[in-house]
Structure formats: C-alpha cells, structure tokens
Amino acid sequence: MEKDIKLIALDLDGTLVSHEGEVSEANEQAVKKAKEAGIHVVLSTGRSLSRCRDIAESLGSSSYIVTINGGEIYDHDFNLVERNRLDRKHVRRLWELKKEHGLYFWSSTVQGLFNEVEPFDNEVEDYDWLKFGFDIQDDDVREVVLQELNANEHLEVTNSSPTNIEINPVGVNKAAALKKVTKLLDLSMDEIMAVGDSMNDLAMIREAGFGVAMGNAQDVVKEQADYVTGSNKEDGVAQVIHKVLEG
Known about the structure:
Layout: E1 7-10, H1 25-36, E2 40-44, H2 53-58, E3 64-67, E4 72-75, E5 80-83, H3 88-101, E6 104-109, E7 112-115, E8 129-135, H4 139-150, E9 155-158, E10 164-169, H5 174-184, E11 192-196, H6 199-207, E12 210-213, H7 219-224, E13 227-228, H8 236-245
Helix pairs in contact: 1-8, 5-6
C-alpha cells in the first residue's frame, strides 16, 4: 500500500461486529496487531458510549472514541472531549413527524437512551438531544420523511441500515469528528484508513486517505470507497488491516 496509515477508524455495526453484535477473534487480533505496530485504532460509531464501551475495553486502550456519529468524542480514559447537541426546536418537529406517521423512533440524549420500548417521561424540551433516529419499513413513508429532513439545512441526515434514518446537527458526522481527532494526534486525514458499511460512514470514507467499504456495505458506500474488503461475516476488517500491515 502506497499510503502510510497511522490511524484506522472503524465503524461497529455491520463492520467490526457481526450481525449478532460480536467481535470475531480474527478482527480482535488484527486490531491488536495494528496497535502493536504503532497505529491508532479509533472506534467511530453511531452507538452511544454506553453501548460500545465494553467493545472498546475488550480491544485495549484507544487514543479516542467517536460515538453517536460524532455527537460525542471521548479520550482513552472515557473522558468527554466534545459534545454536539441537536436544537430542541428541531427535535420537537422530529417528534411531531413520529406521531404523524406512527414511526418507530430511538434516540441518544445526555440523560439516556430512549425509544418505543424505553420512552421518555417529560417534554421534548427537557432533554439534551444528541441524535434522533427512525426505522421506517415503508419505502414511500421513508421517502416523504427524508424529503422533509433533507430540506432542513440545520440537520445532518444519514443512516446505519437501508430502512433507518439518523439525524445529527448539521456538520456533525464521523469525518468532522475524525478531523478533530487527527488534530489532537498531530496527524492528517490522508494518514487515516476509515472502514464502514452505511451512509453514516460515507463522509469519513470519502475524506480519509484510504476509504474502505465492507463487502456488505450499501452500494453507494462501495461506489465511493477506494477499496472494498470482505463482509463482516468474512472478517473484512481483519482482511484490510492485514493489507495495511503488510504494506
């Protein structure tokens, strides 16, 4: 490989972890070999810290962790470095959309994670919202909702599966978060390999020096990646890490 990779940014769901949410032995060993070679390995996920901390700890110390699509950045001791909140007036409209269309929702807030199973008790305005999400099985309804959301210049709209929609504040995405991490580590984006499978990975795959799509990635992600590795069932992360380590 021509590029000198000094940081590997890894998405979790559909990438580092299996569909059962487990990190394979091959992926775990590859991550540890990369770290032993002096390469920073940064988890870059749509999950909140509470939903990825066990995986982060199992892989050994990381310099930084990007969570909630860049909504929060943590250091190696899990201290908060940065937090980006959604404006409550936009969350109010998202909540109205949920009610208008009878949508399944989930969210990350400073006060906790809420969804249809774990609903919040107070008013929308009583929480500090970091990300709001929908899962919409009906293609027509999803398109109607997407049209409204994409027309709102204050929102960053992506997905982590073909049927869901993830909403962060505009400018908050994995690429923007990784740019901040590279500055803290005195690196450049050209020295990053970013690996992912979904629309919320697209920005970091585009802007990394070496952008990698998983074999199971959405087509638009594959089209814009520099390289397509194996699927998450085939230890695609381990495959491409070995490619980097072997030069």
